[in-house]
Every structure is written in structure tokens, then in C-alpha cells.
Amino acid sequence: MGHAELTLREESTTRRISLDEYWMPFTPNRDFKSDPKIVVRAEGMHYWTDRGEAIIDAASGLFCCAAGHGRREISEAVGAQLARLDFIAPFLRGHGGQFEFARRLAEITPGDLNRIFFVSSGSESVDTAMKIALAYHQARGQAGRTMFVSRERAYHGVNFGGVALSGLVNNRRRFGPGLPGIVHMRHTHLPENRFTRGEVTHGVELAEDLQRAVALFGAENIAACFVEPIAGSTGCLVPPRGYLRRLREICDQHGILLVFDEVITGFGRTGQAFAAQSFDVTPDLLTMAKALTNGAVPMGAVAVSERIHDTVLAAAADGAIEFFHGHTYSGHPAACAAGLATLDIYRDEALFDRARALAPYFLDAMFALADIPVVADIRGYGLLAGIDVHGDGVAGRRGHLLQKRLFENGLHLKTTGDAAIVAPPLIAEKAHVDDIADILRRTLSAL
Ligand SMILES: Cc1ncc(COP(=O)(O)O)c(C=O)c1O
């Protein structure tokens, strides 16, 4: 492997750094290191590179920075918290921030999802939700329910539970057989839904795949059904109208828990606090991360229905630990401080309402790109859109080139395969949407 170095210009200093030692995640390392994209600063809707170029953030970092970048309220809250109490063991000890943050989250979660388990990432929230589902069924005397149903094209993080639920082949194929007892429903990306804005018209019948799993394996063996209400990482697949409601009905009929993975869709992305509220379907468990702290401190959480929480707690003997699970950084003081400051911003600036108000303008701008020959499909809901480009014969190659060219032209977003995912911070103005659409048009037209 060759040696790679970079002269980094940061805050009026220049230094030479080696790029060899850091193994970058989900990145073609050799490609990156031959042409590094380094960011040194962020504020509001923009990043700045080490070359001083402004880059508009069309991805909220990675679906994290819903309140925009460089929020002083958050950094000051985190700094003050670390100075006051930097760390306390999360097992058998507590601090005020954990309880306050859980209480504030419970105010915005749907239904009775008022019990909050803290973790440090979206992946951990998914594996935690799987364990809660198993613990709940055991506690109610249905220990045979150990299977999970998820969906093709799903992304549920990178831990072994989430990988087993995942429906993206590259995230699975190198990592062995994974967990047993996972069944996948078909995805809902149908050709007849191409260029549909909002909930798609075709495919509600695909929810019956859950019914087929019940028919094949027996409801008494199925613990939970996991779905992203809008499949995000795979390129923004908005559900067919009535699909989530039908999943809810089938789960209720058979005692299966419904889990919404809202790691991307949570915190205003769909115009409400959670997609569960936008689609008016309440799950039993809801996973979240990313915009939970505006991306400032790593954190995830599982919101749990009171019924499930109470059942698990009641099944344990007096004085016994009810749930043998947790992380050193569960409910970390700095993460809770960041989360509380973030929720204050969301509330004080009414950012979820703002996202809902901006969504029609944003979706108009995205769907206006449909005339560009390389564009194969566009989907969108709220401030989230997916744009597929026609492949060039090698899956994902053109998508990868697209995100590189976009960055060179001053725009940051994530591509998965040949799909670009657009998810601007909720603080975006119409002028920012115009800038994003202009750079997309210019870059897509020249691809
Ligand atoms: C729906 C969903 N679940 C889980 C995850 C994993 O989150 P993390 O990368 O924080 O582990 C992601 C990340 O994009 C996600 O989109």
C-alpha cells in the first residue's frame, strides 16, 4: 500500500499529516487517500474545506445536524456538563441529565412510547430493540418468539443483529451466516412507483409478506417486525399508502411487536417529530440516533411502550436486574446535555413545523430534476429525497462519481449505490434549496 500525506491548512496554520494510519469506514480508502476530501469547519448550512471552499450541506452531515452546524447552545451545554460532571457509571448510578432527557423525549414520542433506553449509536439502538423484544416475550411467557421479520433493502446498522435484519447485500455478504431466524419481506420499490412524490400508490399488498411469514413459521415463533417507515440509506423509499397501517394490523392480530427504525426519519425529517406521527401508525418500539443530539455527541435511544417496559420489569424478582443489557456510555452526561440543548432548539425554533412548511418547495425543486437524462427515478417525503441515476454497467460506480463531482461543485450528500439521498438541515431557507437544486442540475447534467 502506498504512502499518502496531506498538507492540511486549518485555522491559519499549516501542517503535514499522514493519511496511512486511519482506516476509514464505508469508504474506498485507496481512492479517498489519492484525492482526499477534508473538511475543517462548519456553520449553519455549510462546511468549509481545507482549501477554503464553501460546501452546502445537503445531507445534514449524515442525517444528523437537523438544527444546522456550529450550534453554540449545544457546544456550551456540553462544555458546561463536562466541567461539572464528566462521567458516572451508568449502572447503579445516575445523573439528572439522563432522567430529564428521557422525560423530554417522552413528550415528543408517539403513543405510550414513554420509556427510554439510551445507547451510543443507531446500530446499538437496533440491537437493543431486538433484545427488548425478546425479553418482553419471555417475560409474558412466550419465550418461543425468537424470530424477526425485516425487509429487503433495509439498513439497520452494522452490529450483528442489525446486519441480520439488513437487506443490503454488501453489508451482509462478507460476514458469514449471521443470526438465525430472520425472514425478509420484499421491498416496496416497484417500477410503477417511479417519480411518485410522497406515499406511493402501488405495493400496499406487499405488507401481506408479513402474513405469509406467520403462515410459514407460526406467529408463536415471531418476536417482532422491524421496518424503517421510510427506507433511508437505500435511497429514500417512501411506503405505499396504507402499508405501515397494514403491518400494524397484522402485528396486532398475531402478538408480534412492530418496531420502527427512525434513526434517519426521527426529529422532524418528515415534518413531525417522528415518521410514526406523519403516517399515523404507532409502533411498539422506536429506535433513534443521529439528530437526537444534532450529531454533536454520539448517542442513540430506544423508545419503548410502557406496556413492554412494565412487563419486563414486573417479571424480575425484587432487587434483581430486570434487563441484562447496557453500555458504558449509555446516557453519557455529555450526550444528554447535547440532547437537551438540541430539543430546546427544535422547540424554540419550531423546526419540525418549519420542515413541514418547506417540504413542498423542496420536493418541487427535487422533482424538477426529472428531465435530466441520467436521472432514473426520484422519490421524496418531507425534507428527504432520493434521486437514482442510470447505472453505467457497474452497480454504484456512477453514484460514487456523482457524490465526488457534487463535492467538487460545492455540495455534500450521501450516495448509496446509484442513489443520491438529499436531506438538508431543517433550518434551510428556500435560497438554500435553490442552491442545492442548481448544483444537482449542473452536476447531473454533466455526469
Ligand atoms: C435506519 C438506520 N438504522 C440504523 C442505523 C445505524 O446507525 P449508526 O450508524 O449510528 O450505528 C442507520 C444509519 O444510517 C440507519 O439509517
Describe the SSE topology.
Blueprint: E1 5-10, E2 13-18, H1 29-34, E3 39-43, E4 46-49, E5 54-57, H2 60-63, H3 72-84, H4 96-108, E6 115-119, H5 122-139, E7 147-151, H6 160-165, E8 182-185, H7 208-217, E9 222-227, H8 243-254, E10 257-261, H9 275-278, E11 285-288, E12 300-304, H10 306-314, H11 333-348, H12 351-367, E13 375-381, E14 384-389, H13 397-408, E15 411-412, E16 414-416, E17 419-422, H14 430-445
Parallel strand pairs: 5-15, 7-8, 7-9, 9-10, 10-11
Antiparallel strand pairs: 1-2, 3-4, 4-5, 6-12, 11-12, 13-14, 14-17, 16-17
Helix pairs in contact: 3-11, 4-11, 5-10, 7-8, 12-14
Bound molecules: pyridoxal-5'-phosphate.
Pyridoxal-5'-phosphate binds next to helix 5.
Q: What labels would you give this structure?
A:
single chain; 447 residues; alpha/beta; Aspartate Aminotransferase, domain 1; Aspartate Aminotransferase, domain 2; 2 domains; seven-stranded mixed β-sheet; four-stranded mixed β-sheet; 14 helices; 17 strands; binds pyridoxal-5'-phosphate
What does this structure look like?
By secondary structure, the chain is of the alpha/beta class. The protein has 14 helices and 17 strands. The chain has helices at about 30-35, 60-65, 70-85, 95-110, 120-140, 160-165, 210-215, 245-255, 275-280, 305-315, 335-350, 350-365, 395-410, 430-445; strands spanning about 5-10, 15-20, 40-45, 45-50, 55, 115-120, 145-150, 180-185, 220-225, 255-260, 285-290, 300-305, 375-380, 385-390, 410, 415, 420. Strands 6-12-11-10-9-7-8 form a seven-stranded mixed sheet, sandwiched between helices. Helix 8 links the parallel strand 9 and strand 10.
